Amino acid sequence: MFANDHEKYVRIFFEDPDVAVYGTEDVIGEVVRVMQGMKMIPSVVSAKIVFDKMNLRDRDIEVARAQAGLNQVVRDIDAPPLTRNEIEYFASLSRSDLANLYWGVDGDAINEFAVRYRRASREYGYVIPPRPSRP
C-alpha cells in the first residue's frame, strides 16, 4: 500500500545536504526495507529514525564536516577589523589573565578571545602567551 511512499520519503530525506553523501541506492533500499518491515508510517522523520539507528555515518566524513564548520566560525570571528577597545583591552591584561583568556578553560585556545587575539598578534605584533600549567 505505502511501498512507493516509503521510497519517496527516504529519497526526500537523502536530499538533505547533511546526509546526501550517504544516499546510495543500497542505503536507500535498506532504509526502505527496514521502514516497511517495521510497518512505519512513510515520512521523512521515519527515514531519519531508521537511518540514525542503522549507524551508517562515516566518522571521517563527520570529522571533516565538523572541522569545516569550525574553520568557518573562526573565519567569521576573525573577519571584522580589530576595534580600538579590543586593542586597548589586550594591552591592559596581565600575563596571567591574558594566558587564561587566550587558552580558555580547556587549554585549547579555541575561543572567541583567542581568535581575536591572534589577529592582534598578526597585525600589531602582540605575543601569543605560553600555555598556563594546569594542576
Determine the number of helices (DSSP H or I, runs of at least 4 residues): 7
Q: Give the strand tally.
A: 0
Largest sheet: none
Instruction: Classify the secondary structure makeup into a structural class.
Output: mainly alpha
- Helix fraction? 55-70%
Shape descriptor: elongated
- Give me the Rg, rounded: 24 Å
* Distance between the first and last residues' Cα: 64 Å
Overall domain count: 2
Instruction: Quote the average pLDDT.
Output: 92
Detail the poorly predicted runs: none
* Topology as a string of helices (H) and strands (E): HHHHHHH
Beta-strand content: under 5%
SSE layout and pairing:
Elements: H1 3-13, H2 25-37, H3 44-54, H4 59-78, H5 84-92, H6 95-103, H7 112-124
Helix pairs in contact: 1-2, 1-3, 2-3
Care to describe what's here?
With 135 residues, this protein is mostly helical. The chain has 2 domains: 3-57; 60-124, no CATH class. It has helices at residues 3-13, 25-37, 44-54, 59-78, 84-92, 95-103, 112-124. α1 crosses α2 (25-37), α1 crosses α3 and α2 crosses α3.
In short:
This protein has helices at about 5-15, 25-35, 45-55, 60-80, 85-90, 95-105, 110-125. With about 140 residues, the chain is mainly α.
Provide the descriptors you would attach to this structure in a database record:
single chain, 135 residues, mainly alpha, 2 domains, elongated
